[in-house]
Specification:
Chains A, B: GO terms for molecular function: DNA-binding transcription factor activity; transcription cis-regulatory region binding. Two copies of one chain form a homodimer. With 197 residues, chain A is mainly alpha-helical. Chain A has a domain of 134 residues: Orthogonal Bundle (Tetracycline Repressor, domain 2), CATH 1.10.357. Helices cover 73% and strands 0% of the residues of chain A. In chain A, helix 5 runs antiparallel to helix 9. Chain A binds a DNA duplex (30 and 30 nucleotides) through helix 3.
DNA sequence: GCCAAACTAGCACGATCGTGCTAGTTTGGT
DNA sequence: ACCAAACTAGCACGATCGTGCTAGTTTGGC
């Protein structure tokens, strides 16, 4: 048969072009033409891989979730619950370009969900995964909590980390980011410190 | 001269049409045509009031911020710092249709900011106003904090309330909202309880 | 060498977009 | 009564959009 069928590499390359367009011009500028131009390919080539625009956006969203998950899974575990928790939480807020891009894409997708219903299950899946991770962190920090309080604290941590992330993303004073880490470290200490409460 | 120049009422009517379109179809569906149709007027009439699309969106954003500010200012003060703080924070999360719509519009504007730079100062202004409100609440709950800790706690409260709001907005299980209020009440108690820390 | 399948490139169509522009329609002051 | 200003309504233009479609171009198995 013809050339190798390594569509995967091409798909990822196009998805990254989608992210760049979102990052630079906003989600409203994502079209098959702009993405193809950003990726340096013709529209026809793009549409050979992604026949419709929806499939392009959908794959880009899924890949973003997958990348974030992989990055989280790759963070080293030292065994110290507090240190590990802070290390993981640091990966959830936009401190580096890639995590920042991920969050910007995520936000854009949330805002575009009414127009593209296919994105809703992806957003919900990411939401639940992050909540589950927060629950895991809380459980490792304060293992003696009963189930209802664990759920409450997990939701609280989830809200705090997403709020911090959102503010870091749009803060007019982009210079200082220490407060964000400090804020998360305080929460970790609070959870670990008051074991039985 | 001709008819009365009560452009204001018309402008607000059109801005509310913008909000409905954002709410139903997403920010991407906001065009002079869709908004005019939603408001039940002709495109020409809309463009007599808002010559360009940017002015339409800009006014809608500003009006949303103003409405939210008014709603916050209208919350009754009982003198009990904790009770008042919870009452104000309740107005910042999407528990009722109007505050929910405000948040959806706000989120859409954040996502569209790269495409419409005129929205950036509006978003920053709203950000700073909300941060200032949080600082005010923290100061009334824990008046003995030094300045740096007050700033830290204000940012933390700001992040928490925005995170809770974001999650309430997109939570797959829209049924229970009690955890959100409980979460904010816990934070208020924590701030008021550990006065000097 | 060769050919079918994978891939690239691009044209064309209808729809929608923002906006400049002009023509009707109301309406309040005189 | 009347007219100028405020307002309503809509046409037209170029740009961009998603997508159906058809040609070229590569390329691996025979």
């Amino acid at each position: 048969m013809p050339r190798r069928i390594d569509t995967h590499e091409r798909k990822e390359q196009l998805a990254e072009a989608v992210w760049r367009v979102i990052r630079d011009k906003g989600i409203g500028a994502v079209s098959v033409r702009t993405v193809a131009a950003e990726a340096g390919v013709a529209v026809g080539s793009l549409r050979h891989v992604f026949p419709t625009r929806t499939e392009l956006v959908e794959f880009s969203a899924r890949l973003m979730v997958r990348r974030a998950t992989e990055r989280l899974a790759a963070t080293a575990r030292t065994g110290d619950a507090r240190r590990d928790a802070v290390a993981i939480l640091r990966h959830l807020i936009p401190l580096e370009p890639d995590s920042r891009a991920e969050l910007e894409v995520n936000l854009a997708l949330i805002a575009e969900a009414p127009a593209t219903p296919e994105l809703v299950p992806i957003r919900d899946e990411a939401y639940r995964a992050l909540l589950g991770l927060c629950a895991h962190l809380v459980a490792s920090l304060a293992p003696d909590l009963d189930e209802t309080r664990l759920a409450t604290e997990a939701r609280r941590l989830h809200a705090l980390v997403d709020g911090v992330a959102l503010h870091l993303l749009t803060d007019p004073d982009t210079a200082d980011t220490d407060w964000a880490v400090e804020c998360l470290r305080d929460e970790v200490d609070r959870l670990a410190g008051s074991r039985p409460r």
